[in-house]
Amino acid sequence: MNISRRIFVKHGGLAIASVGLAPVLGPAFLRRAVFGAEPTSQQKKKTLICCFQRGAADGLSMVVPHGDPDLYKLRPEIAIARPQAGKTGTTALDLDGFFGLHPALAPFLPIYKSGHLAIVHAAGSPDATRSHFDAQDYMESGAPGNKSVADGWMSRVVLACPEDRAKLAASPFRAVALGGGMPRSLQGDVGALAIPDLRTFGIADGGGGAGRGKRPGRGGEDAMMAAAMATRPTSAAAGFETLYDDAVGDVLHGTGKESFEAIKTLRSIKPGAYIPANGAQYPNTNFGRSLQQIAQLIKSDVGVEVAFADMGGWDTHINQGAAQGQLALRLGEFGKGIAALYQDLGDRMSDVAILTMSEFGRTARQNGNAGTDHGHATCFFVLGGDVNGGKVLGKWPGLAPEQLNENRDLALTTDFRSVFGEVALRHLGAKGLERVFPGFKGNPADFRGVIRTT
């Protein structure tokens, strides 16, 4: 959509007759665009980028507990080999003598050694569901086991930060998702935007009225989840003028050309001409493009506070592979993308944290198809200038039969809300976690120390 061709005078102000704006694009977006602060007023704000690995990524392959002998009993074909001097690309990359990175995550190793990458292992949701959709929903709402929570934790965390009420009139790009539709994490009163691609300026909105929306049935869930990832909307639905014929007059009357300065900023970014800094090379994939465009928005100083991207393809029931194979290919794209984002942002990473997550892990024991099934705990990566990195954090539960969850999974020792909550409090500066994670007390004494406190 070319926004400049669709702006017209209406009710003495400005409105957008849209073929690319969602019908849910409500007054929250309009008021933020109309009364928003200048983009430069948001410089030096802390920013959080969340990357969701949809499909249940295998934490035991991403960060290999090569020091646990039970790993190789449970996974005779698909376990990543122990580190060996002189061998590259086929064995784990040692981190601390016990854990090692999957060789496809080699781009993470220098970031880890620099102290800007921390790993939390045996982490995830305390809810026991093995449903992708339920587990993703619980993690994105920040309320495991509670289906009554209608908004997402990322929306709430922005409103829990200092001067949150004043921020309601801030940049319309303060909460943004790149690469697809509106994620569950950003639905809520913050009025987030979902931009499938900056180059086409298709925009959707996650207004306060957004609920849990439609979700697939339970039958054939793995196939439906894969289909959902493959067919996510590439543009928002039409209908802005019809829906807001009356609202536009109230919101935009008499505001003049400056009313849509924030939207015009999108046009000025010129995404097609963007050149990543510091030699960063993003994968030529949807995930890579999403990360590159997040970096571009942050570097354009349009006031991004939280950003979201996701990547599917982690449901490796069949022929998962070890150092090579389908999982290795996904990890290669994932690792190169996030490392490129880190490299591209350069000095700005002092004010940025990147947090990865997946709804649950995989079974500790390989299945009969040389793959893994839906498990429990997995691992999260946290990158940034104020990250307490160069460490694998959390309590390792072990892989002996009596240590497994339900005799099949890596047991959970860190609630995802402790990781998300620590980033929210110590990086973003949220005022308390009770507003962000309903029913979660979030004792800082239980934090794993992913963010430096001094």
How would you describe this protein?
This protein has 454 residues and is α/β, with parallel strands linked by helices. The chain has one domain: Alkaline Phosphatase, subunit A. It is built from 14 helices and 15 strands. The protein has helices spanning 27-35, 59-62, 70-74, 109-113, 132-141, 153-159, 164-167, 221-230, 240-243, 245-252, 261-269, 286-299, 326-345, 416-428; strands at residues 7-10, 13-16, 47-53, 63-64, 93-94, 100-101, 117-124, 175-178, 192-195, 204-206, 306-311, 352-358, 378-384, 391-393, 414-415. The strands form 3 sheets. Strands 3, 7, 8, 9, 10, 11, 12, 13, 14 and 15 form a 10-stranded mixed beta sheet that branches. Strands 4-6-5 form a 3-stranded antiparallel beta sheet. A two-stranded antiparallel sheet has the order 1-2. The protein is globular and about 60 Å long. 53% of the residues are buried.
In short:
By secondary structure, the chain is α/β, with parallel strands linked by helices. It is 27% helix and 14% strand. A hairpin with a 5-residue loop joins strand 5 (93-94) and strand 6 (100-101).
